[in-house]
Amino acid sequence: MKRIFASALVAAALAASAPFVAQQAQAGAAPLQPGTYALDSAHTLVRFTVDHLGISDFFGTFPGATGTLAIDPRNLAAAKVDVSVPVARVSTTNATLDGELVSADWFDAARYPTMRFVSTKVVKTGADTADIAGDLTLHGVTRPVTLKAHFKAAAVNPMNKAYTLGFNAEGVIRRSEFGVTKYVPMVSDETELSITAAFEKQAD
Fold first, then answer.
1. Residue 130, Cβ neighbours under 10 Å: how many?
2. For residue 9, pLDDT beyond 50
3. Rounded to whole angstroms, how far apart are CA atoms 118 and 81?
């Protein structure tokens, strides 16, 4: 009986997902619709990773990002990305550390509440990859940064019916260049950024 019940659940799950899979397959034939997109804050996350005392890697996340993407697959070089991240929402699952990170010793969120990336150049590097150069403003300092982006998927979100693009991106910064110098080099200056982002198409 348990096996029959489990099989039924699997079959039901596959049947429920079939329309979504079909939409993804259909989107694959024309993977990018041109237009203006808004960042889906609920399904976008920025993660940072540092080396902690040479013993272990340690990471935290920034939820709540907002922003826009303007893109035309026929002219990818003209794509524009503008994303802002609320620094005060940093989360490491350690409440004491979170309080330290938003203090003046680290991100100083009271004075600099937002981290912002604005693209300046997009260079296609593969069938579904691109280098996105831009200006990153953090802790009141603006410096050039290049993100290596990977286009993951395009599909109609089965929950809200919005046509959505999914991307992953990675980059590396030196936090000291932005004035965040606490505990360098015990906590590494080099900071890895990992981003997963969803953009929903807006009405023309």
1. 20
2. no
3. 6
Rounded to whole angstroms, the Cα distance separating 190 from 144 reads 15
Question: What tens digit of pLDDT does each residue of 131-181 get?
Answer: 999 999 999 999 999 999 999 999 999 999 999 999 999 999 999 999 999
**Cβ-contact 86, 113 below 8 angstroms:** yes
So where are the chain's domains? 1-30, 32-201
CA–CA dist 162, 149 (Å, integer)? 22
Residues 6+ apart with CB under 8 A from 9: none
Q: Comparing C-alpha atoms, which of 199, 193, 197 is closest to residue 47?
A: 193
8 Å CB contact between 142 and 161: no
Whether the pLDDT of residue 15 is over 80: the answer is no
Domain 32-201: give its CATH code: 2.40.128.110
